[in-house]
Amino acid sequence: MSGLQLYNTYTRQTEAFRPIHDNIVGLYICGPTVYGPPHLGHVRGPVVFDVLRRYLEFQGFKVRHVRNITDVGHLVGDGDEGEDKLSKQARLEQLEPMEIAQTYTVAYNEMSRRMNVLPPNIEPRASGHIIEQIEMIEAIVNAGLAYKANGSVYFDVLAYAKSHDYGKLSGRILDDLIAGAGNEARELEGQDEKRNPNDFALWKKAAPEHIMQWSSPWGKGYPGWHIECSAMSRKYLGDVFDIHGGGMDLLFPHHESEIAQSTACTGHNPARFWVHHNMITINGQKMAKSLNNGIQVEELFSGNHALLEQAYSPMTLRFFILQAHYRGTLDFSNEALQAAEKGLQRLWNAAETAKKLPVSENSEYNITDIHEACLKSMNDDLNTPQVIAQLFEAARVSNSAADGKIKLDQVNIHALNELFDTWMVSILGIQPEKEGNDSALDGVMQMLLQMRAQAKADKNYALSDEIRNKLTALGFVIKDGKEGSSWSI
Q1: Which pLDDT does position 472 carry in this prediction?
Q2: I want to staple 35 with a disulfide (CB 3.0 to 4.6 A). Which of 89, 292, 342, 474 is the partner?
Q3: Residue 196 main-chain phi, psi, to 5 deg
Q4: What does CATH list as the number for 282-427?
Q5: Residue 198: left (phi > 0), alpha (psi -120 to 50), or beta?
Q6: Helix, strand and coil percent figures for the chain, each rounded to 5
Q7: What are the pLDDT digits (tens) for 200-240?
């Protein structure tokens, strides 16, 4: 038993996590629709589920992590109306859809790499699994839970709801959905084919000019958005697997439809745990084109955006994300990012200090207590803010030991260094960011500190103070100790 407790969106309860198969965890994450460069809204999910995967692996589980790439079937409107997002972008950029898909898949994976997100074990594309999607649609039709209409195939929500609880995941009541749909939905493209406005497309008939289309038992067309995840998760993880993750914006209609499709096909909810992270807002507002507050990740790293006061590093962004619980809203602002940047630097400085602590014969602090507190926090539904709070406690101990206020023996000094390596690097995935000129910078700083030391030895205190004051003004911290001076940023 892992001790991990996870909030299950499907049951609305925090439950003890136990994998279906001993020591093996099946993890499926909804990946991006690759029709544009990654933006700020794309970063939270990869980081949250990367930490979940790292923690499961830390506990000794073998994780099969599957994250899909949506490169066909996701229409501009989630309700089966509008143009395929990739086809639309391909037309605007005068490229093949697969060129668009490849360009932005590479960009998404490069963003993930820079943020130290482990690559998935399997990264299937919707366009590469058309056969599996067709087979699943045929099974749903044969079960009497889907119908054909003018070359398209729609899932029959009312027929399914006679014996299943449609809407349980998202908390939506079918009667309310039907009442709210009215006749307006039927006026949208293709909606008049549906028996009910809440039915959703499993397969869409393609117009002759549609760029992406395949042969099927129902004619030329392309799969609906939702069926891809049902088909690919089943192919690589089985009829029932451990964890399905994604953003809260996918609760309805995407994940609700996944559950309905898979249940219609196999008789089972495909995942035992449904885990959802909340959204990122910007200065208290949702990201929207009308507000002109969308920030691409590359703009965040370069600082090249009107809303940004400076550039922020990938690890600063990762640390910022993990300072909030994954189920809470995370509000982006320059002040919040700058505070995260300073806090992260404090932790790295303390981690470096821990490597050079003086050894005492006995210890006045038990570092194991911090490790146990970190375990307790992570087991409590991935409470990364509490883990970070414990790391700041470790930083306080490290700095106090360096200042001679706390005594630590060799065992606890070793445990302190292990704590930073295990929790910051291995589990939270926050790695030191090295610049190419680090060694040169250190050489220059050592030269300045030697000049300052010589000035003090010559009793030229004015020059000594001037060197320190100018370095401080540039953002350097100078610490004087028994064995000489050290520096940090």
Answers
A1: 81
A2: 89
A3: -140, 140
A4: 1.10.730
A5: alpha
A6: 50, 15, 35
A7: 999 999 988 878 899 999 999 999 999 999 999 999 999 99
